[in-house]
Amino acid sequence: MYLRLYLYFMQFHAASLGSAIPKNNFDATIQSLFDSSLNLRLEHEDRLITILISDHYDLPQGIRLDEKIPLHSLTVGLRAASRGGILRFDSSPLTIDLRGAPIWEGKIPSLILPSEQAWSITWRVLNEQQRLKNTELIADDLFQSRSLHPPFGQRAGQAEQGSLLARRLRQPILQLIAAAEQLDSRSAKDAAQNMIGLGPGVTPSGDDVLIGFLAGLHSTAGNEKERPAFIQTFGESLLLLSEETNEISRTYLYHAIHGQFSSSIIALLDAIHNGDEPRLALVSKETMRVGHSSGMDSVTGLLIGLCVWNKENSYA
User: Which domains does the chain have, with CATH numbers?
Assistant: First the structure.
């Protein structure tokens, strides 16, 4: 009887599935384990899927659970298999029922043009939270240059400042901005090459900034053929460059290149677009809470990307 109860309480139901989760049977191994998530490496595929314990955000590659599961029964390298919509793990009674879970597409609506006020509020909250958490990357520090003026820079005569990471990312980001403005995918690739894998974290800061930047571009591309064409060409180059970073980052970059993002990024874009100030501050902080600094780094890239093709929020 006790065994039956134990096995019963080790059965969980997925709250949602990202659109990238295989629709049919699949085999995988556990690639990494964290407090509230684990990554599975799909067999015969160079990408991961993530089992995520969260009640507030989805991932395009995610199997989301809204209740705590006993991850202590699992280990890196353990094999997993999904058969008939039930995900099982070798040597563990844990099972996850994938059947009937709603699908998260993760697609960004196009042509989201934020007001200057909404953008400025989010930028201010971002820098406040980065300083409060003492992260290595402070968004304001990226634009400490004699050639720029607030809100993206300092006035002439001030000395450059910021962490080593900010100083290393500063020039590639400025090059990336200029390249996107001019729809120059080759120059954008050169800039991204100096950002991939740069910085701390499970997903390095440079990668997170690129992911957010892509979200900003996708959301403001509109119907002009040249902009989606630039994103596609740049994305193809970025996909090759992503071989230089780790598997987890590479998975997020893969989906960002294809215009798929977490629900927290999309919720923030929606809040910026609608300009609801109380909700904007709340959603901003929720998005920034992801990881130690990943959420903040992604929002940094997002806000920069929103400015490239939206001159109302110009950085120059």
Answer: 2-104 (2.40.50), 116-313 (no CATH)
C-alpha span between 15 and 30 (Å, rounded): 20
The residues, any chain, with a CB within 8 Å of residue 274's CB and separated by 6 or more, are: 118
Q: How many residues does the chain have?
A: 316
pLDDT tens-place string over residues 269-308: 988 988 778 889 899 999 998 888 899 999 999 999 999 9
Between CA 12 and CA 74 the distance in angstroms is 15
Tokens 């590659």 belong to residue: 61
Q: Cβ distance 118 to 312 under 8 Å? A: no
The angle at the Cα of 7, spanning 94 to 1, to the nearest 5 degrees, equals 170
Q: What is the pLDDT of residue 1?
A: 45
Q: How far apart are CA 115 and CA 312, in angstroms?
A: 7
169 Cβ neighbours under 8 A, 6+ residues apart: 137, 142, 195, 198, 199, 205, 206, 209
Q: In Å, what is the CA distance from 172 to each residue of 14, 44, 143, 189, 215?
A: 40, 34, 11, 10, 18
Whole-number pLDDT of residue 148: 42
**Paired tokens of 201:** 């974290």
According to the 3-state scheme, what is the secondary structure of 240-278?
Answer: HHHHHCCHHHHHHHHHHHCCECCHHHHHHHHHHHHCCHH
The model's confidence at residue 3, banded by pLDDT at 50, 70 and 90, is very low
Closest CA to 195 of 232, 237, 147, 224: 237
Cα-atom radius of gyration of the chain, to the nearest Å? Answer: 20
Whole-number pLDDT of residue 163: 85
Check if the beta carbon of residue 106 is closer than 8 Å to that of residue 19: yes
Residue type, 119: W
**Confidence bin at 91 (pLDDT 50/70/90):** confident
Strand partners, 87: 82, 96
Classified as helix, coil or strand, 286 is helix
